[in-house]
Amino acid sequence: MSRQAIDSAARILGAVPSLIEKGDYTQAFEKAEKAQKLAEKAKVPNLIGWALMAKGEALGAACRLEEALETYQRALGFSSDLFSKIQQIFVIKSFCIILLARLKKYLRKLAALQQQSRYAKRQKNILRKLL
């Protein structure tokens, strides 16, 4: 059963990135959680670590950054010495990408609000001149 659980977990984890890309963060998180349970059942620490990282990615993409960071930290605890450096780099890179994407989104919103504010001021000045 453990080989089947490992294969199922790996297959499920393969679907997580495309779900995140589509914006289906809830399903991505649920799939990663299911993969984690299968990996725990099979008692494969590295696979548990990768499942936790997939959960962290889904949480981060959903702007649940505190939970994502906690999940990434838990993932590092499950990695073996061989994979810990790779996983640490992956975690740091993933978290930075998520933060930068969110920052870009918020900066765009801020720019749009500033543009609306300038437009409102111009309209207000026009109304003052007319009245």
Q: Would you give an account of this structure?
A:
- The protein has a single domain (2-130), classed as Alpha Horseshoe (Serine Threonine Protein Phosphatase 5, Tetratricopeptide repeat).
- The chain has 5 helices and no strands.
- The chain has helices at residues 2-22, 25-42, 45-61, 65-78, 81-130.
- Helices cover 92% and strands 0% of the residues.
- With 131 residues, it is mainly α.
- The mean pLDDT is 81.
SSE-based structural type:
mainly alpha
| CATH-level-4 superfamily name | Tetratricopeptide repeat domain
- The number of domains: 1
Overall pLDDT, averaged? 81
Output the CATH class name. Mainly Alpha
Find the CATH topology. Serine Threonine Protein Phosphatase 5, Tetratricopeptide repeat
What is the level-2 CATH architecture name?
Alpha Horseshoe
Tally of separate helices:
5
The helix/strand series, from N terminus to C terminus, equals HHHHH
Regions with little confidence, pLDDT below 50 for 5+ residues: none
* Range of helix content: over 70%
Largest sheet: none
